[in-house]
Every structure is written in structure tokens, then in C-alpha cells.
């Protein structure tokens, strides 16, 4: 078996920020094959046209104009789209597809440790710190759930209200837990570890508040959008720049299930894309030279139908796509295999083919960013293939 880690030492600590577009984002109108002979005929209401001002990448591909903030990243060779990325499993269920992708085990309903948590567990040392991994949301994404402890941080936790909440929890996990009549009566030995775990979490959250609240962490000229995603991504940047050792961060953007009123150059889908791209571009600017060893990995559970439906939207599909953004990636190039939109090339006559298994992208990101080569059975019953991202 090859070694798990390479010997190189980056100037800044490496990190992955995993962005999940929940709902099955329409990758076909993000990365647009505008020269495909049938593209406009199958999407007469939502197709992107040349007069809409798309971002031209090469002779075949353009970006939706709402993703214009990605253009400098493409020119700097920091943006690597992967077309046709997805799962080999045929499900069109959001819940199953998300589980299969985040646990990185399509069709396996028994595995309950996320792919990023498996990395954290496999690579953990005796002195692994409390800030190795976090999610800036109320619930941990499935990719970060598992054996290794990961911090889920609600947005409100960086405010005064969060401090008051921690004060109340500190009372709960303090002396009142061990005195007679307390919540746990006379259990002073804490044999289950509940008290110790609770206190450790509170201490970590207090340190988190210190990091994001310090004047030093707030310095920077980046213009994040005033949105939920923008503010959470900014918080991740602050923790990464603090030097506390954050390696993995998870963040979700919901609302991509566009069955109705999706829109083309304008509309709900375009508004979401604009916020998404503007926030990531601001994050890259904010991180500065640290982006050399930081990768933003963007994924969604499946793509959408090739043909638009009768409600100016799209339905659950199969193949979709991914973005990998960072200084170490082989950007400025479209990765993956593209077969076209003709009926003969579609999955079950309606969807994009999944020509690149999402696990191949995950494996290359872990290796390319951390120098971590997933051991055998890291991806159950699957041997990864090269994509060429790093």
C-alpha cells in the first residue's frame, strides 16, 4: 500500500472547503455547452444565448453570466470545472443521492461516516486540535459526520446572543451536574464522558468566538455579498487565517430544486448563482496567498433533466458536475468527458451521463491538497481513477 502522506510541506497549512448545493443544481446551465447543436432546442425558455453575455471559457464551453465573478479565477487557472461528474447509482431521490455522495458509497445504506470524516479519522494524530474541522451551520453535513469530532457552529454563535447561550450551557455542564439534585445526580466520575465532552465543546466555541470577533481577523478588503452564504464563508476564512489549524470546513447552500420558474439569464436560479460565485470570489481574494494550498470543492447530488419541463424549470436528473477551485488545481481547463446532448448520448433518454465518478474527484482532492492517498476500502468496493485535477 502506498504511503498515506507525501513529504512536501506547504507554505500555508492545506485546507478543503466543501460547498454542497442541496437540491440538485442544474449544472447544464452553469457550464453551458453553447455550441451543442441541440442545446437551445431542448431548453427554449431557459437556455443561455450569446447575446446574454456568458463568460467564454473555450471553443465549447461558457459560464452562465451570473457566474461572471469566476472569470478572473478561470484566467488565473484556479477554476477547474468537471463536467459529467456524478454518481453511478440511478436514484433520483434527494435524500438517497445526498447520502450516497456524502458517505461516498453509492447504494450502501450501512456506512454512516462521511468521506471527510474518514479522512480526519485516518489522518488523526495524538495531538489533533479542536479546530481541524467545522461546519458553519446548525447541523453537520453528512460528509463530516462520524468518529472524528467536528464542530457545528450556528451563525448566531459569533454574536453576543451566542455568548449568553454558552454561559447557560456552562452552568449546565458545571458543578450542577455533579451535586446531589443536579441533572446527573452523584455521577462525579463521568464514566460516559458526557460532561467532559460538553465542557470541551464549550471551550472550543468560546475560542471560535474570540477568533471571529477579533479585529485582526476582520481585516481585509474583500467584498462578500450580504447573504447567508457570504457571511458563513467569511467566517470560514477568518478561522483559516487565524492559524488555529482548520483543515476541513463544510457549508451548504439550499434551494436548487428548480422544478418551476427556474429562469435562464434572469430568475431564481441566476440569483443563486450570482450569490454563490460572488461569495467564492470574495473568499479567494480574502484568503490571498493562502489559496495556494486551499481548495474549494463544490458538489450537488445530481444534475437536472436535459429538457426543460412545462413550468419553466427542470426535473431530477442524473449526471451533473463539480467545481474545484484553488491555487494548486490544474485550472483554466474543463475536465471530464463530454458526450453531447443528442438523444443517443443521454442517460435513460433524458439526462446527462455520469462520465466521471464523484469519488475520483474526492480522491484527487484529498491527495492534491493534503497529500493523503485514500487507503484500500476508503471508498467501499471502488477503485478510483485519475481525473488530472492536480
Name its key features.
single chain, Alkaline Phosphatase, subunit A, seven-stranded mixed beta sheet, alpha/beta, 12% strand, 10 helices, 390 residues
Topology (SSEs and partners):
Layout: E1 15-21, E2 31-32, H1 39-42, E3 55-56, E4 62-63, H2 71-75, E5 79-83, E6 85-86, H3 94-102, H4 115-122, E7 133-135, E8 151-152, H5 160-172, H6 194-213, H7 215-218, H8 228-241, E9 248-253, H9 268-287, E10 294-299, E11 321-326, E12 356-357, H10 358-370
Parallel strand pairs: 1-9, 1-10, 6-12, 7-8, 7-9
Antiparallel strand pairs: 2-4, 3-4, 5-11, 10-11
Helix pairs in contact: 5-6, 8-9
Summary of the model, kept short:
By secondary structure, this protein is α/β, with parallel strands linked by helices. 28% of the residues lie in helices and 12% in strands.
Going across the biggest sheet, name each strand in turn: 5-11-10-1-9-7-8
Q: Indicate the structural class.
A: alpha/beta
Mean pLDDT: 87
What is the name of the CATH architecture? 3-Layer(aba) Sandwich
The description of the largest β-sheet is: 7 strands, mixed
CATH class: Alpha Beta
CATH fold-level assignment: Alkaline Phosphatase, subunit A
What number of structural domains do the residues give? 1
Q: How many whole angstroms does the radius of gyration measure?
A: 22 Å
